[in-house]
Amino acid sequence: MSIGRNPLFPLVSPSGVAIFGASPTPGTLGYELTRNLCQGGFAGQVHLINPRHREIFGRPCHPDLAAVSGWISLALIATPAASVPDIVRACGQRGARAAVIYSAGFRDSDANGAENLRRLHEAATEARVRIFGPKSFGYVVPGARLNATPVERQVPVGKLAFVSQSGAICASILDWSHNNEFGFSAIFSPGNAVDLDLPEILDFLAADPNTESVLLYLENLQDARGFLSAVRALASVKPVIAVKAGHQPAAAQIAEARSGRLSGGDDVFDAALRRAGVLRVRSIGDMFSATRALTTPRKPRGPRLAVVANGGGPAVMTADLAAELGITLAPLGAETQARLAALLPQARLLCNPVDVLFDASAEAFAAAVAAAMADPQVDGVLAILAPHTFEDPLVMARATIRSAGASHKPLLTCWMGEANVRRARNAFAEAAVPTFRTPENAVVAYAFLVNWVRNQALLQETPPALSSYVEPDLERARTLIRRALDEGRESLSLAESKAVLAAFHIPVSHTAHVASAEAAVAAANQLGYPVVLKAADIGAQPRLAVGGIRLNLQREDEVARAFAELDAVATAHGSGGGVYVEPYVDKPAARELRITIRPDRLFGPVIGLSEGGAASEIYDARSIALPPLNPRLVGEMIGVPHVARLLGPLRQMPAVAQGPLRDVLLRVSEMASELPWLQTLDISPLLADEQGVVAVDARIELRPLTPGHERYAHMAICPYPSQLSADWTLKDGSNCTIRPIRPEDATLLQEFVRGLSAKTKYYRFFGTVGELPQNQLARYTQIDYGREQTLIATTWRDGRTQMLGEANYATESDGRSCEFAIVVADDMAGKGIGGKLMRCLMAAARLQGLAEIHGEVMADNDAMLALMEALDFIVNPSEDEAVMRVWHPL
Questions:
Q1: 389: Cβ–Cβ under 8 A, 6 or more apart, which residues?
Q2: Distance in angstroms (rounded) separating the CA atoms of residues 447 and 328
Q3: Is the link from the previous residue into 704 a cis peptide, with omega within 30 of 0?
Q4: Which of 96, 250, 587, 812 has the most crowded CB, counting CB atoms within 10 A?
Q5: What letter would DSSP give residue 464?
């Protein structure tokens, strides 16, 4: 979607603004808004409306909208809640397409709040007006000198955007930014956001050429899937840094009470942000430190940091914090140590951190930095200077900047002090070298860089719902689930749960259900001793906690006695009696693990991996991830330090075989994706040793689905739609594959675009392009399949994969329609590839529940217009004579 068609465009580029509730009385909301718009330098037309006043700030004030003769494209409304719906309706009739509502009184807890909100929705829908608010703090576009907030500030212009769910935080940033080095492209605070919310704002910022980085202050979400979709798209082209408040339960409850929105688990929110490529930090101060760090175009390949300092104290402080943050102080190679020895014959230590001594010259300091940068075992360098009288800090800074040369590794600096180093800091800023006031801040910033690079890698992982292994028996698993739901049950028995696991090729121990002691003995004899007996289906509580399990039974009499005891336990807990007989799994070196699927209130199913037994409840030390998973994402899960230690060698026991464990996690991801009836899954214990894994106990709880449930609607991240891939034969008999695009197709797409003729490029991109810029290339290939789709046609030619065509649709804000674009390689014209792509694209849009597809075609693009007519598209002229509008119902 072009920025001009984004629903926020009327807010940021209004041709005429009407202020309802304008006031000359200082201290009122109407006064602050009027002053900011009329005296803040905004060049557009401003119309003041309030029947109580005739003039404000020397401008006429009108009694109502009817008295205004000029054009209205945006309304700022600061009037009582009951009056707002009628104002919105009137503004829509005058051509306004957006309204910012500052008024409160639209929540259920407010007097007449529900009725006010109903009327507002009705009026906005009828008038086709998008709503920003209610109870919005407003927004600022510094470049347009447009301040639609109640805070009087000249916000510095820059490339940083800030989005806040808290008006108070937004106000503090406006005040704080006045004397800060950062400038802003836009600041948004949407308030209660009944219409325009985070997804629309983030979509706008992704397309905004004036924005290079985005900061988010979050408390909770209204549309988790929409947010993740938009923030993933944004983070694929621009750095996104977020503070998520309410990470402690008490704070989360406060946030919920304030907003009226649900707040999910903090660890799940953290995992979702990582998966979206967003860097999460803990405080507003950290947010700007991370922003400063990301100003460098050089990004680290890993956590190995070298520190060069002219004093031992700062170096030791740095080493302490680096260890806490998981940043490794890189061991310097022999060649680097030899270079340092020649440079610094008086230095006491030639290891990392490198102490160049307090009186080091600019040349020696810079040479030490260059040596560290050149070491292949170093991913980044932090240079720390405690200023002295022997060298000007600015001279030291310039020498240090030169020392980085053309290295791809990031250089961070910390010139300690204030007045004497101010010019040096300015020099670093001009050279895009991040600089900090304290060593601790610098190390934290490097950790931010490392985490951001890692999250960007996770962002590109878009796995399919099903792995490439042997396909699961989906019909078997779904039949077991549907039968239980038809019987009115909300959980599966142990035997049924294991059967579902087995359908997904997860190793399970055999389970036999018996109703008598004789049957239990017979089952034990058949399985072979030793055996385990379990009370049948006693609910969610652990069997061990209620005495519902007997282990390592060796004889028939032990089995008969255990049956009598456990049948009584089962009867007492309402299962109707009965006992399970299983073989005793003897794995003396096994770890007891627990793998779960749990529902999060915001993000849907979440996969967890932890130690089994009571430990998982006591320590809550788990590794979590949002499905779908692939091997890379599974590797992230088992690489979490506490999990890695659990799986490694312990007390003379060999490490767990990771291959089988990884397979189980991938299979559990398949279950989370393909079985939307799963409320919870608990595999505990999963016994894992050096030979493999086996699930000896499992519990599945179910939920019925609403009618018309879409296949992956229960998931926050839509899987790669591999079901849309197909092979086709073209008119000339050649073959091609049409499939959804992947992040790794960036090079393929760039080569395709380069090979198009200038005319074809113009028809596709409505402009002259040589090749796609890197951020646009990422935006085209790293898509959210839940709200857009790009299909590419490829073939194997001349020993490599080549792209023949590309077709894309993007869902519009109404959720019913989509806009498409298509291009075919010049040498493939007339071979049927365009028709194949469009039919596949339309089929994909139908599967997504869309009702209409439309687009724009240049009026002189005869071949494309002929294709549209062949596909029964309706072709109409547009307001622009050079463009035809085409559309088709789906």
A1: none
A2: 10
A3: no
A4: 96
A5: B
